[in-house]
Write a structure and sequence with these properties.
about 240 residues; alpha/beta; Rossmann fold; 11 helices; 8 strands; about 45% helix
């Protein structure tokens, strides 16, 4: 049921790993939290939380190393380098991770559901907005969507391209038309370390462009922690898959 792989990414100029759980079902790419690797979601019980959906053939989970997030948290290199890596990471997902998923699916080119928590939510929403021809929905859990504070307040064209709250307002044409056929769930607890305002802010950006989305504000008993995401993810996958 589980398989792992890794390769050297020319786009990232470093290795990246990938993991898969399940035999068949709708493809779901779950991004780790900021510094997580491809198997983080398994170690923290997210795969087990989705086990009924996996074993029922409803979903097939994939994850990849959070290469840009790891550099962001560790403050590796200059802010400009870390912002460049954030943009390159999304291109790695499009040109390397997605083809690996499609190969694993036997060539099936069905659109993929993107999901993630915290910085993983940022990546899930970003890849849907950047590549709506490849992804069909995003599940953002406890998302952090404005990342300037992780780059010492700096901003660059690379970060603009990677950040949906910045680039979505200027979208038009075919990409916007495609994005308006997609759906974004923005879920957030209201307990410790949560900020549901982040979800409302990105919902406003999406809504102003006519992109279907929904904010689900969970209660004060749901903190910014793995038990919250173990409860959220299977619920939303059951809805979307």
């Amino acid at each position: 049921m589980k398989a792992t792989d890794s390769w050297y990414s020319e786009r990232l100029e470093q290795p990246i790993g990938m993991a898969r759980w399940g035999h068949y079902g709708a493809p779901v790419l779950v991004f780790p939290t900021a510094g997580g690797d491809a198997e983080e979601i398994e170690r923290n019980g997210l795969v087990d939380a989705c086990r009924p959906l996996i074993e029922g053939g409803r979903v097939k989970l994939y994850s990849c190393d959070s290469v840009a997030g790891r550099a962001m948290v560790a403050k590796a290199g200059s802010p400009e380098y870390r912002m460049w890596l954030a943009n390159q990471f999304h291109h790695c997902v499009l040109h390397e991770v997605v083809p690996a998923i499609r190969t694993d699916l036997g060539g099936d080119r069905s659109p993929i559901v993107a999901a993630g928590a915290s910085i993983g939510a940022f990546n899930a929403v970003a890849v849907l907005c950047r590549f709506p021809d490849v992804f069909r929905a995003a599940i953002g859990m406890s998302g952090t969507y404005r990342l300037q504070r992780f780059f010492d307040g700096a901003f660059s064209h690379d970060l603009f391209l990677a950040s949906p709250v910045d680039f979505v307002p200027g979208l038009d044409g075919d990409r916007l038309d495609a994005l308006r056929q997609r759906f974004v769930v923005l879920a957030s607890g209201q307990g410790a370390w949560e900020d549901v305002g982040e979800s409302w802010a990105v919902a406003d950006v999406l809504g102003r462009k006519g992109v279907p989305n929904r904010v689900d504000a969970w209660g004060q008993e749901w903190p910014h922690e793995w038990p919250t995401w173990r409860r959220m993810l299977p619920q939303y996958l059951d809805e979307l898959c």
